[in-house]
Design brief:
The chain has 12 helices and 12 strands. It is α/β, with parallel strands linked by helices. Strands 1-2-4-3-5-11 form a 6-stranded mixed sheet, with helices on both faces. A 4-stranded antiparallel sheet has the order 8-9-7-10. Strands 6-12 form a two-stranded parallel ribbon. α3 packs across α11.
Length: about 400
């Protein structure tokens, strides 16, 4: 039996447990850096599969690493398992978690024969953290001895190398002064007005930014009572652009809009976060092509998506700038439902989602095996060396 068939056999033996794990995580959504149960369930499964498991790595309590094999080529497979507020696993991280664990289990069966070391890296807080989990793990050494990294994300349809843009998430806080809104309005400083001025400025700014830039956010606190001048308001905002360099430019412009709100009203403004943005994803072409071929072998198809450019973001982009990486999308037949809709969350525990879990896990495992057994791929990756390094 060849290494790829051994990987398929291993995955088949865990198929029911992986589907059960996906559904279990889906039914118990946890927000970023709070994913205690999901991390425990993943660690228990991987420990049972023979991995050496380390919990709470890099001083991140809900992060983990699970390693198997001792070959010269080291591939990291990233698992995400955080949910969104209110709408749960509407981005399908339950599928990602089980899929990545399955890919690790499958590749580990063939690791010694193929010359692989496989690490499943549990990466918390991709969705809403001011600092994404992968950014912390990257900074603190979790990927230091990896030659390549990969993960696959659920989507309405399959895509080998979906465009993923840079993003910065930050919180804005205004502090004004309370007063009676009718009797003594002149004695108040209206923090809600400061936010309104900023939002108006951002609206006017849109004609002066690139068509590929994005600015969006929500007001998280607008005041406490209609008859009291609001002294405290808060908002959570995201700015996106094609690259880290373009992001820095538009982010500075948006920051000035928020500063203008404070200047116009006299409220104090504080901007928290945004200094560690998500980078754009750079898909390693050769690895992406290997994944495409393996995904097709599982029965996946890739529609022509030209003319429908995506604009999502992920902290996997930061990993991709440091280590050769891929971040394909795998379809779960959800249309017209799309990511971050409650209807998409419902699709993430359907038979189509369970099938995508298996296909994505197998395609990733086979791709890892290809990286170790195809001499041109292996030698290129080994020659680059392990761990984070500057990318052209």
């Amino acid at each position: 039996m060849g290494p790829k068939e051994a990987a398929r056999e291993a995955l088949n033996s865990y198929r029911e447990r992986l589907v059960d794990l996906s559904h279990l995580i889906h039914s118990h959504p946890e927000l970023g850096y709070e994913e205690e149960r999901a991390a425990d369930w993943l660690c228990e499964l991987l420990d049972d599969a023979g991995f050496t498991v380390s919990r709470g790595i890099c001083d991140v309590p809900t992060a983990f690493s699970a390693r198997a094999g001792s070959g010269p080529l080291h591939v990291a497979i990233c698992a995400e398992y955080d949910a969104l507020p209110s709408i749960g696993h509407a981005c399908g991280h339950n599928i990602i978690a089980a899929m990545s664990a399955g890919a690790g289990i499958a590749a580990a069966r063939a690791a010694d024969e193929a010359g692989l070391t496989i690490t499943v890296v549990g990466t918390p807080a991709e969705e809403i953290g001011n600092v994404g989990g992968k950014i912390l793990l990257l900074e603190r050494g979790a990927f230091d001895d990896a030659h390549a990294a990969m993960m696959v994300h659920p989507a309405p349809v399959d895509a080998v190398a979906p465009p993923m843009i840079a993003a910065a998430l930050f919180e804005v806080r205004y502090t004004g002064k309370e007063s009676h809104a009718s009797a003594f309005p002149e004695l108040g400083i209206n923090a809600a007005d400061a936010l309104t001025v900023a939002q108006t400025a951002i609206g006017l700014l849109r004609q002066h930014i690139r068509s590929t830039d994005r600015v969006h956010g929500i007001t998280t606190h607008g005041g406490d009572a209609p008859n009291v001048i609001p002294a405290h308001t808060k908002a959570s905002y995201m700015v996106r652009a094609r690259t880290i360099e373009e992001l820095a430019d538009v982010r500075d412009k948006v920051f000035r809009c928020f500063e203008a709100g404070g200047l116009a009203t006299g409220a104090q403004v504080r901007i928290i976060g945004g200094e560690k943005p998500y980078a754009q994803v750079v898909h390693e072409t050769a690895i992406a092509e290997a994944y495409r071929q393996n995904a097709v072998r599982t029965g996946r198809t890739f529609p022509d998506l030209r003319g429908r450019e995506l604009a999502a973001s992920t902290d996997m982009g930061n990993v991709s700038l440091a280590i050769p990486s891929i971040h394909p999308a795998i379809g779960i037949d959800s249309l017209p439902a799309v990511n971050h809709q409650p209807e998409f969350a419902a699709h993430c525990v359907t038979p189509a989602a369970d099938r995508a879990l298996f296909d994505g896990a197998l395609a990733m495992a086979w791709t890892a095996i290809d990286l170790a057994t195809t001499s041109s791929l292996r030698e290129t990756l080994l020659a680059r060396g392990a761990g984070p390094r500057p990318r052209a």
